Amino acid sequence: MNQRYYHLKTAILNKLEAELPKQFYYHSFSHTIDMHDSAARIAEFENIEEDDKEIILVAALFHDAGFIIDRENHEMHSCVIAKELLPQFDYSSSEIDAVCNLIMATQMPVKPKNKLEEIICDADLDYLGRDDFKVIGDLLYRELSESGGVKGDEEWNQLQIHFLTNHRYYTKHSQTHRESVKQENLKRLMEL
């Protein structure tokens, strides 16, 4: 990666750490780091060229920045923040558009249209197929229950079962390295 990327990464991470509301236990600074690292790993496995990899990683850093502004339409707000910050680090308008397209690709329900969108969608939900699924899921449960988005354990478990049943990984990396554990996580939920 080049210098502008590292300077930008420092700037956006500092902004997220300082400005993300603390009641976002899941949509947090830690989630951004986790997704960024997942996106880097998947992009490497999928043999993505450096320029495209940079765009993916920048989009990963910004994808939930919109929570600083509002929970509703946070992807759109993330793009607003990206369009304000990226020109300061010499990102071109076409690169900024590419970043925003990737951010918008993470909007639920996801419908990725190309390899880069598949990577960012898989990176965003990488934890579904990992051993820390319950720990991370508990953060999302706490965030949703405190905001009135979910009422109680039973509703939460049903929501997770429905989500995991309908979720799919798109990249070869995630299908190979995450799908089997995701199925185990789903099985455990169904046994509750």
**H-E order:** HHHHHHHHHH
CATH topology-level fold name: Hypothetical protein af1432
Number of β-strand runs = 0
**Derived structural class:** mainly alpha
Oligomer: single chain
Question: CATH homologous superfamily, by name?
Answer: Hypothetical protein af1432
Radius of gyration: 16 Å
Taking pLDDT < 50 over at least 5 consecutive residues as the criterion, the unreliable ranges are: none
**Main β-sheet description:** none
> Outline, from the CA principal axes?
globular
Tell me the strand percentage band: under 5%
- How many H/I helical runs? 10
Structural domain count: 1
CATH class: Mainly Alpha
**Quick check: average pLDDT?**
96
- Share of residues in helices: 55-70%
Distance between the termini: 45 Å
Per CATH, which architecture? Orthogonal Bundle
